[in-house]
Amino acid sequence: MSVAPNLREGAALKTACPYCGVGCGVVVEPDAAGAPRVRGDPDHPANFGRLCSKGSALAETIGLEGRLLQPRIDGRAASWEEAVAHVAAGFSRAIAEHGPDSVAFYVSGQLLTEDYYVVNKLAKGFVGTANIDTNSRLCMASSVAAHKRAFGSDTVPGSYEDLETADLLVLVGSNAAWCHPVLFQRMSAARAARPQMKVVVIDPRRTATCEFADLHLGLRPGSDAVLFNGLLAHLARAGAVDAAFVAEHTRGAQDALAAAGDAGAAEVAAACGLPEGAVALFFDWFAKTERTVTLYSQGVNQSSSGVDKVNAILNAHLLTGRIGRPGMGPFSLTGQPNAMGGREVGGLANQLAAHMEIDNPVHRERVQRFWKAPVMADRAGLKAVDMFEAVADGRIKAIWIMATNPLVSLPDSDRVREALARCPLVVVSDCVASNDTLRHAHVALPATTWGEKDGTVTNSERRISRQRRFLAAPGEARDDWRAICDVAGAMGFSGFDYPSAAAIFREHAGLSGFENEGARDFDISALAGVAEADFELLAPLQWPAPRGRAGGTARLFADGQFFHADGRARFVAVTPRAPATPTRPERPFVLNTGRVRDHWHTMTRTGKSARLSAQTPEPFVDIHPDDARRLGLAEGALAELSGADGAYVARVRVNPDQRRGCLFAPMHWNGEFAAQGRVNALVPSRVDPISGQPESKHAPVDIAPFEARWHAFALTRAAPRHASDDYWAALAVPGGWRREMAGREAPADWDAFASGWLERGEGDEWIAYRDAGAGRFRFARVSRGRLEGCLFVAPDASLPPRDWLTQLLAREALSPQDRMSLLAGRPRMAGADPGPTVCSCFAVGRNQIEAAIASGCDSVEALGAKLKAGTNCGSCRPELQQALSRAGVRETAPAK
Ligand code: SF4
Fold it and tell me: Do 322 and 461 reside in the same domain of the chain?
């Protein structure tokens, strides 16, 4: 790893976390050995020094193993010159023969704003196609569309500070404790400091976020709009309407109220599958609490009626006039670190740059003039799901995919694989050498990644932060913006000869203020002339920052002025719709997909960290105990899910926090880490008709036991090779790798199988236990007293505790007791097995936490004092609270 000069000088360097939309500031500084280490930036207004488990482990993920370091064409190494010429010729040929809409760009919320800006400019202004879309389509497109309908602009009105000063926080479809952990910690600390603050969580699942809620509404999946329509009607009945605000600053209230109907709490509760008293209490709190913030995230957006659901929420805030003022307003939480930046530059197929509209001829002419562009796309392009349909049916002949793995993240992902296999030219820019999508690339371009890139990102509260370079680009990795500009130049286009990311940022800022005069919300023209040195020092700021207001803007709409032509906001009449794909007898379960605490997207980065892999070692499926009992699915067994065109095999977690008839599975696992762990293969590609966002929270599936003849796991020092077991999942552990396996047919010779897996060599000590009748085998390879690997086999999932054995792999030498334990298949000393990891910072396991509670620890603080759990990043504190609740221990104060 080569450290860039700015870190070698020894000064701490400030940058931003590359994971979620909270957008935390990070300080990177060299440790005693000169290697980068990270801590939270105490001065960054998003996190004030906090980092969650993922942010804290950033330094563990910057190694070069698995990186793509040189361009490849058809699998062979190539120079950049050759690769750029090849891509440019392929795209130019497709355009010449089939027109500009025969090419497409599929990009990512992981890109920096500067990357996003130039690829959007190339597609829309020079190629002349709007076939550019981003994986942010999968996370927040419904909020974008709803904001535009209500406000006339894609504006998040408030600031994180409002979440701390609200008296009522309503979280809808958001497991913030895991998906936006630092923001959750801020809200949780504010609630602990201000006991009058109430928290309502609306989510079919009882998640870790519910641990700080006063009220959890575990509603029927898909019924959110019914609940918020009911709330709207209640607000009118309860006299909570801000009549002056509605009259002077909005339109459409009567239509929205008429559509909402007059259902009372009892009727709404019945429709949502909730207790009437809980619905009545929520309505009452909302009506009576002026300082209310409603946060919403993927649970609302990822729906075939996601836009309407968001508008139903916005309606409630418009009716009460609670918007744009401190401590109140609707608040969309974005998933990715730069989903907002992508929206600013028009990275979606139905947008133009700088929050201008592609279907507005005045906007198109203005942007074309600003860019001095030869052409301009004159209609919306293909949104993500439609784009890959067009690849499948041959309309798209060349596609360039950047910083994303659509074979894992798009719905009906097996069909995406078929589409790419048929496409004449697939170009993939990525930092990794191998993933599901790269296997279909004709051209692979090595990209720089976090720590090597330089530019800006925007978080959920509209705050632009710098991502700064502190590592030199490895091998021939190149910044995405530079690769795009190189290809644009090779296609014969001028206007792409930027000397730096700062130059792109200046143009982007200039366009935002170009002929704006306050007509568009996104305006950062105060930064249009920022010098290179000032860009280097740029402090985080919230847009808009028009000329003369360089300090940015904390809130919008306090003056009641919106961005529709008449300055008024719009209510939207919402008629709730059922999910697009209902359950049916052969697919009777509703599958909800989402994130786990310590992984990010398709694990490209977090999968490298043993610490981050410990909390959730395998793909899993959560199921209610009654459903599990009925289907014969035991905790820890394997289950097979079928739906859409694909299958998913995962470990069963029997979880009373699930609704009956509902399943939950994570979206992270991919072909690098599991055999059949791509859960999006189960999700039908049904989308919201306005936003094009897929319905990833409501896939009808079936679930059945996975009938395996044998189960096994192996620990090895070297990364395990891929094999064709019916089930496998691999993860990094301290000192090596762990691989879970299962099969429908048992190998003929387990000794031969084990020797192959553990790479048994001359002179190795071989510890073996065989009980062929019971189907139990244990093998361990020891070299010079050190455990080099072990394999445990059983006829069912009742295998020894992995966490105990993983500790042995990390030891320099085995003791005689360790050897006996290996043969016995269980720890010889009581308490030696920590159990599944809960606190990843200090490797504290569930068994240790339960033992500490049994010994008298009665609060999160007491657990922290005894075990250190929860005392570093704090991401596991909701789970510590859950463990206390499970044990029947009531804390006197909620977890901070
Ligand atoms: Fe990164 Fe965690 Fe902050 Fe999100 S909450 S930006 S993942 S440190």
Answer: no
